Amino acid sequence: MRRGISLVAIVGVMALIAAACSNNSSSSGPSGGTSASALSYDASAQGEGELNLVAWPLYAEKDVRGPFEDATGCKVNVKEANTSDEMVNLMSQGGGTQYDGVSASGDATLRLIASGLVAPVNVDSFDDYANVMPSLQAPAHNTVNGVHYGVPYEWGPNILMYNSDIVSPAPKSWDITFEPQINGQANPYAGKITGYNSPIFIADAAMYLMSHQPDLGITDPYELNADQLDAAVNLLKQQNGLVSKYWNVWSDEVDAFESGDMVAGTAWPANQNVLISDDKVNVGSVTPSEGVTGWADTWMMSSNAPHPNCMLAWMNYTLSDKVQAATAYTFGATPSVTTACQGLKANLIAGYGQEVGTNAYPLYHCGDDGYLKSIFLWKTPVPDCGNGSSDCADYNTWTQKWVEVIGQ
After folding, report:
1. Which of 32, 102, 123, 335 could form a Cys-Cys staple with 54, CB 3.0–4.6 A?
2. H-assigned helices in 213-268
3. 219/373 Cα distance (integer angstroms)
4. Looking at residues 283-292, what average pLDDT do you find?
5. Which residue from 295, 333, 177 is spatially nearest to 246, judged by alpha carbons?
């Protein structure tokens, strides 16, 4: 379905990111600071007749695009991308003039901002921004020094999913995925564990260590000094011996759970919903005691968008409850606007039936800002992590370390 992070060379903007994010504080109000160059949506502005987007698969489907095209006259062309690195590279093509916008995840947004590839926007100009969940109105992954670089779309947690016929009792901790021994016995699920194939997965190990090795002093799983990073990488190398296969495409995990090659590991709610719908294997999921990482996606506008009015209109359109509910159902994500929750529930019931749809709806935690706050949302690791010494590892270093983990 989406968002694996490939190990291609990262765009060389980490120094820029460090500078841009040295004071990356969220604003106190819905809009916070506004750059003098921030662009505003104007409902009366004439569209340019076309719109070129880079998007995760299923994020701009025909049923979503159609009404927008009819209302604005902006024909939407979508280039689907399966990795955050691919999105950053596509947005840089032609000096940033080939595409108007991108549905970027938190592990790409700061790279796009620091490289100057995306434009600041005036969120107060969008019709439904007031309905955005509080935690997503000015998050650190798309708001720098109070300046906004896009509008939120969908979000979700990286849950612990398990085969409920095999994994018993139901897990309460990520220990079944990281530890070779559980309660003094060999891990019974060794060889059938899965993890997410991405450098950003290092944060999951760091989050686990926050609970189990507090002396390391990790307070944010994306802000790791050399010793903390080494501890997380060593844990992942230990986990590697338990893993049957890492996944970065949703179908790989679904297929492996259905074949029995995987019985527990990191998953998106979308993956669980597909398995429930297929009804070939019984699966459950939990938010373990250590917590979960997660992702929140942002529609961002190119600084050199060839069709700026159409892009601003698209950003305004994607904040509507019907659009967010439709994409949440199609993809298996959670809307960022609270007004979309009833629509999402109705879509689930219509698509899966009353019983399955009703049971699936709680997995989304729609409108639950308390749950969203508990998630360690993806963000690009940068050297300056707020302690005044700029001693944290950047994303380039994380990428190199991830190669060590999967290549051992």
Report:
1. 102
2. 226-240, 250-259
3. 15
4. 96
5. 177
